[in-house]
Design goal:
Layout: H1 2-16, H2 18-39, H3 54-82, H4 84-104, H5 108-136, H6 139-146, H7 148-166, H8 171-176, H9 178-187, H10 194-199, H11 203-213, H12 215-222, H13 235-242
Length: 243
């Protein structure tokens, strides 16, 4: 049972951390894209406006952090109203749009907008992902699963570096957009956290999810026992007397 709980908790936690992978990819995308955009010209130019200037490259790079500031505020405002699940799902939408903008971009403004949306999604993600994981995971696995947030972002950045070295400029966004699309298609089937459901008075559903994901914690808190051993006072003495 312990392995089953860990797998269920790990799968759910990793699903929400696909946001981190996608955010890491748009973060690391600029490392290979900006030098390419600054040197492309003539028949080999990537944008209709030609090679980007140093100032435009700076705005493309900095737009990510501007979006992150806004995203943090937006995430904090909606996470209790919409719930952890749907706030995380909404964060996947700007990630899809940002890669679409990179695909269709013919002017640096598109790329600035793409990076801003990527930062917006990242800001929301860093608000909601720790909440979702901590509320859906059982106590014994919570520390391990919480580390997936930074791990997923680092993996996304490394994927972007690797893609920049191996793939063509226009191939990278087509590959990258598959991550948030997959997230949006699958995460909607995962449950809301028991804590939020209890807060909105959906107690029956909350209890059902609590038993499915954190049964061991539930037994500890309600009955003071685990599936492996009793934690009732003097349980060992009682069993000795009975024998």
């Amino acid at each position: 049972l312990s392995c089953r709980w860990f797998f269920l908790n790990f799968f759910t936690s990793w699903s929400v951390n696909l946001l981190g992978v996608s955010y890491g990819m748009i973060s690391g995308w600029s490392s290979s894209a900006l030098p390419t955009l600054q040197t492309s010209a003539g028949d080999e130019r990537l944008l209709e406006s030609g090679a980007i200037t140093l100032q435009q490259a700076s705005w493309i790079g900095g737009a990510l952090c501007l979006g992150g500031i806004v995203g943090t505020l937006v995430g904090g405002a909606i996470v209790d109203r919409l719930g952890r699940k749907w706030t995380a799902w909404i964060a996947g939408l700007p990630l899809v749009v940002c890669w679409v903008l990179v695909i269709v971009a013919n002017h640096p403004g598109y790329l600035m907008g793409a990076r801003f949306l990527g930062g917006l999604a990242g800001g929301i993600e860093f608000v909601v992902t720790p909440l979702y994981v901590s509320e859906i995971a059982c106590t014994s696995h919570r520390g391990t699963l919480s580390s997936l947030l930074i791990l997923s972002c680092c993996l996304g950045v490394e994927f972007a570096y690797l893609a920049g070295a191996l793939l063509h400029y226009y191939t990278i966004p087509w590959v990258s957009v598959s991550v948030p699309v997959f997230f949006l298609a699958t995460f909607c089937f995962l449950p809301e956290t028991p804590s939020h459901l209890a807060k909105v008075q959906k107690l029956a559903v909350s209890l059902s999810i609590l038993l499915r994901f954190t049964l061991e914690d539930f037994l500890n808190r309600v009955f003071f026992v685990t599936p492996h051993r009793s934690r009732l006072p003097n349980a060992h003495c009682a069993s000795s007397v009975a024998s």
